[in-house]
Amino acid sequence: MSDTALDVTGWTCPAPLRDRPRVVMGHGGGGALSAELVEHLFAPAFGGEVLAGLGDSAAVTLGGARLAFSTDSYVVRPLFFPGGSIGDLAVNGTVNDLAMSGARAAYLSCGFILEEGVEMSVVARVAEALGAAARAAGVEVATGDTKVVEAGHGDGVYINTSGIGLIPEGVDLRAQRVVPGDVVIVSGEIGLHGVAIMSVREGLEFGVDVESDCAALGGLVQAMLAVTPDLHVLRDPTRGGLAASLNEIAAASGTGVVIQEGRVPVPEAVANACAILGLDPLYVANEGKLVAFVPREHADAVLDAMRAHPLGRRARVIGEAVDAHPGLVVARTGLGGTRVVDLPIGEQLPRIC
């Protein structure tokens, strides 16, 4: 081998390099690249103690009331997919972020960014879906904005929604409250949203129709809190899937997490699709599921309450928080081995929400 130093500046890699000087798709994927963008660029630029919490929504106090406040933008392609649309996502995604703080969502803002040339009938379908989803979730769209960009500078319709809701007294949902011994519960089958988007985007068929799990989780969360307000943390595993949420919680709490791989509910259609495409269901996005870390003494009652709710019928205990390997998520396989479930770099399926 030559001793001449190699010039690697022109090399390319199938996964985005983490020191790239330009934005890549992985920066929006909810994985390590997204986390680094927030931690090293946005958080230092914005500052503030509230932002430092980096939860699905921010818990703030205003006039003596505890409020949850959240914002999200939706750039999904295609705009309509089995089980939902960008309008449904815009409501349910923000409602769910508020619910992960224990809040009852009350009001949303809605910003539409429309591409010049998009059919009015398409905009009307999206708006009608958004309005129907808001009514179903018991939340009111209170204010909004519309902008139009030139043809070729958008993708038909983008939407931003922000939301506020009241956090009940005694509820304190933060990853920092997780302690060893907490039981990890997932509310149902994972991976449906990501596979549904992929199937229509790429024209793939997996033998059965796969529909997105897009749904508002506020009612499910309230049923859980009715058992005990002493839940430790909730997350809705959207971009980056269940793996990203578990890693975020492990890192913030300083605990390890062990899951039993065989107990994670993966529908057969999702498992088959992932096997064909070389994907891991743990990293595939969801839009109507949550993962909860619950004190062991409350776990059975909380699980029963979840299974009594339509959106939690297939809830299941999948693991626990542990003292060992702090900050690390480990899966025990069916063969008796273990594997590290790392934070994804980017995202297996971009533009899914």
UniProtKB/TrEMBL annotation:
<dbReference type="InterPro" id="IPR036676">
    <property type="entry name" value="PurM-like_C_sf"/>
</dbReference>
<dbReference type="GO" id="GO:0051604">
    <property type="term" value="P:protein maturation"/>
</dbReference>
<dbReference type="InterPro" id="IPR036921">
    <property type="entry name" value="PurM-like_N_sf"/>
</dbReference>
<dbReference type="InterPro" id="IPR010918">
    <property type="entry name" value="PurM-like_C_dom"/>
</dbReference>
<comment type="similarity">
    <text>Belongs to the HypE family.</text>
</comment>
<feature type="domain" description="PurM-like N-terminal">
    <location>
        <begin position="55"/>
        <end position="167"/>
    </location>
</feature>
<feature type="domain" description="PurM-like C-terminal">
    <location>
        <begin position="180"/>
        <end position="325"/>
    </location>
</feature>
<dbReference type="InterPro" id="IPR011854">
    <property type="entry name" value="HypE"/>
</dbReference>
<dbReference type="Pfam" id="PF02769">
    <property type="entry name" value="AIRS_C"/>
</dbReference>
<protein>
    <submittedName>
        <fullName>Hydrogenase expression/formation protein HypE</fullName>
    </submittedName>
</protein>
<dbReference type="InterPro" id="IPR016188">
    <property type="entry name" value="PurM-like_N"/>
</dbReference>
<dbReference type="Pfam" id="PF00586">
    <property type="entry name" value="AIRS"/>
</dbReference>
